[in-house]
Amino acid sequence: MLKNSCIALIMSILCYSCDSNLVFDEYQTVPNQWNKDSLVSFNVTPPDSTNTYNLFLNLRNNNSYKYSNLFLIVEMNYPNGKVQKDTLEYDMTAPDGTFLGKGFTDVKENKLWYKGYEKPFVFNEVGEYTVKIQQAMRENGKVDGVENLEGITEVGFRIEHSNTN
Asked: Is 39 helix (H, G, I), strand (E, B) or coil?
């Protein structure tokens, strides 16, 4: 019993030390289908307004996802009222159709850049930020968006310290 407890403690220490850049990491489950009007929202209070960060959108998808890419609308609401809205596109499959991302089962996890890839991001206002994520998929030749997107099981938001601190 003591041996198992020691092994569990060592494994948790190793896992934590491997992810020392982590500031925030949270997921929300998408029930069955992601409706085009449904927002996934995260509230974040960054630790400071001087250090630099990398921001990521994390997505978990399964084999029900039938597209090679994904369009998202991401809105960041700053504490003092500023709103920044971006339309982003991500590749979800390789050219041969196999899903990108990590995972040994039919669920793949994708860590997608949001902010910080060109230059590290600074939370330059003190207080709570809100990040809202919405799917914006459209089928070729159709004006209306995909009403209910299948195959995305969880949406996450992650903040890491950048390596330039």
From this structure: coil
> What does the angle CA 123 – CA 35 – CA 133 come to, to the nearest 5 degrees?
5
**Domain boundaries 22-161, corresponding CATH code:** 2.60.120
What's the pLDDT band for 164 if we cut at 50, 70, 90?
low
- The token pair that represents 104 in the structure block: 């040994």
d(CA 75, CA 52): 20
Q: What is the pLDDT of residue 30?
A: 94
| pTM for the structure as a whole | 0.84
Question: Rounded to an integer, what distance in angstroms lies between the CA atom of residue 19 and that of residue 28?
Answer: 20
Which helix (H) or strand (E) segment holds residue 8: the answer is helix 2-18
Residue 165 token pair: 């601190």
Q: Where are the domains of the chain?
A: 22-161
First to last CA, the chain: 42
DSSP string, 65-125: ---SEEEEEEEEE-TTS-EEEEEEEEE-B-TTSPBPSB-SSS-EEEEEEEESSSS-B---S
